[in-house]
Amino acid sequence: MCGIAGVLRSDGRPVDPDDLRPMVAALHHRGPDDNAVYCKGRVGLAHTRLAIVDIENGGQPLFSGKDLALVCNGEIYNALYLRKRSRDFAFATETDCEPILELYERHGMEATRHLRGMYAFALSDSSRDEVVLARDPVGIKPLYYAPTKTGTVFASTISALLSTGAIERTIDANAAQQFLQCQYSFGAATPMSTVKRLLPGEVIRFRKGHIVERRRDHALRPIRPQNWTEAESLSRFDAAIRNSVEAHLQADVPLGLFLSGGIDSSILLSVLAQSGRASLTTFTCGFEGQFAADEREAARSLSNAVGATHHAVEVTDADFINLLPRVAAALDDPTADYAALATYKLGQEASKHVKAVLCGEGGDELFAGYGRYRVATQWWRFYRRGKLRAGIMDDLGVLRTDSVDWAGQLDGETPFHSEYACRLRRMQAEEFSGWVPNDLMIKLDRCLMAHGVEGRVPFLDPIVIDTALQMPDAHKIHGRMGKWILRRWLQLNSNAAQAFARKQGFTPPIAHWLDLCGRRLAPLVAAQPVIREFCRTDAVESLFGSGGKAAVKAAYLLLFFALWYKVHIERCSPEGSIFDVLSVRS
User: 41, 242, 292, 304: most buried by Cβ count inside 10 Å?
Assistant: First the structure.
């Protein structure tokens, strides 16, 4: 795991190494072990390294001949396979990223179709005066770019782009509207008006600083569902998850596991225990008081059952007040995900013990763990697509205008329209276009990398994804229970896990936190210029302390948006409480 950045000039002038230094400093937390800058002509590349594979010799950029230079953020899990089948390529390191160079020499922009992993990379080909940017199909690893007066800059984070001083700190009103309705924005646009995301699976070719070609691969391929028996589905899932976990264990440093006590992380724990790992380290999180479901005891029991070393973290009321600004600083591409604060604290604790952790993200989305998936497959129940995409601010009278068709814009981002696209698959396609890359993966990446910890997600491996797509819907949803085949697998492989326990969900006590300080927060949030721009001040104040699930969610979203704006647009320090940060005058 690393940070990458670059400058692509279109004005003919060579890049000066000093042009990259601010971005290197801004990406230090993503790669505290080493950094390097490479400049050749109108191209400059930068890399900050978190050393996990080939610790001694795996520094970047990586080179092939005089023309190709590569910087990569991520892990290539089929690197050993790619090395074995390479055609006379002179590998200089043992790092997992170097095979990208050989693939590019053979396949050009199609090289990514041979990769299994999570990645965002930049490859400079000086013989053609070109640079290729690429991102993995799920969108696990981030990559952003922005035009400037002299060309294009790109980086792993928006904050690194802003550090150059070449990017205007202004809001994209359309993306902000999406955020206010969905808690994240989707597509290429970010709330920072000049900054664009590479879409998941996108490959973009730049020549002389300008885009000349782009192509894209989607994580959810149009695979025909198979008429498997339950036994066959169990066998296929067993083979896929074991293969994926084994691939995700490739590292030259200790790895840990985020263990919630739920189905997905319990499966990972069982596979790890059965793989014969000499030592396991697990981490779990709970909340102060009795205002949220607490899975710490269940997680501790599971960890103890396999002889793992266990660490428990508590998120307190004081953390909400004092750490939330730092979380907003980490989430420069904003997502108002309730779980971000807990993920941030887990990353903080994990950094004391390991450099990388396995995480259970993706299990719910692939195997229908949420109640909304069950609704989508039950045609006899009241079901409308528009209802499933109701906005957070709908019917609250908060927004000054709702004229932006944020929901309609999502249709253009949904790739999975095929003869195999049943209701469940169409909904999953929406999730993988918006929720998965722009909420789930951003939250995981930023909140862990803020502490120099890599997050790995075995459920989002292409082998597991393809297995899930081939599996009959009836093996995902069984009556009123989601993730059926995962529960059956856990029943057969773990005596300690509660395979058929009702899903609790990881829901922080947001209502309790807002009750504690809502009266003080309401006027501060309502007074922020960005909130006044999009919202009615009196309606904003009435959300805080009014109770009700919809009001609580909206109030938290506006609080987070106000903090994000303070830190990233107004450049306020995130050090201090939410009251301190919101009280700073612009």
Answer: 292
Query: Is residue 406 domain-shared with residue 357, that is, in the same domain?
Result: yes
Residues 466 and 555 in one domain: no
How many Å apart are CA 443 and CA 505, to the nearest integer?
Answer: 17
Distance CA 266, CA 261 (A): 6
Considering the domain architecture, whether residues 40 and 149 belong to the same structural domain is answered as yes
* 556 inside domain: yes
Task: Clarify whether residues 211 and 264 are in a common domain.
Answer: no
DSSP β-bridge partners for residue 270: none
User: Which residue type occupies 250?
Assistant: Q
Residue with tokens 């993503």: 30
Q: What one-letter code names the amino acid at 162?
A: L
CA angle 452, 334, 204 (to 5 degrees): 80
Are 52 and 251 in contact by the 8 Å Cβ rule? The answer is yes
Residue 539: give the domain boundaries.
510-583
Cα(539)–Cα(555) distance, rounded to whole angstroms?
10
Answer yes or no: do 212 and 242 share one domain. no
> pLDDT per position in the chain (586 positions), as tens?
699 999 999 998 999 999 999 999 999 999 999 999 999 999 999 999 999 988 888 899 999 989 999 999 999 999 999 999 987 888 999 999 999 999 999 999 999 999 999 999 999 999 999 999 999 999 999 999 999 999 999 999 999 999 999 999 999 999 999 999 999 998 999 999 999 999 999 999 999 999 999 999 999 988 888 999 999 999 999 999 999 999 999 999 999 999 988 899 999 999 999 987 768 899 999 998 777 678 888 899 999 999 999 999 999 999 999 999 999 999 999 999 999 999 999 999 999 999 999 999 999 999 999 888 887 776 544 344 444 467 899 889 999 886 566 655 655 555 555 555 677 888 888 899 899 999 999 999 999 999 999 999 999 999 999 999 999 999 999 988 999 999 999 999 988 778 777 766 667 899 999 999 999 999 999 999 999 999 999 999 999 977 789 999 999 999 999 999 999 999 999 999 999 999 998 7
Domain count, the chain: 3
pTM above 0.85, yes or no: yes
CATH number of the domain within which 18 lies:
3.60.20.10
Same domain, 17 and 166: yes
- Is 223 part of a structural domain of the chain? no
| Enclosing H/E stretch for 173 | helix 173-182
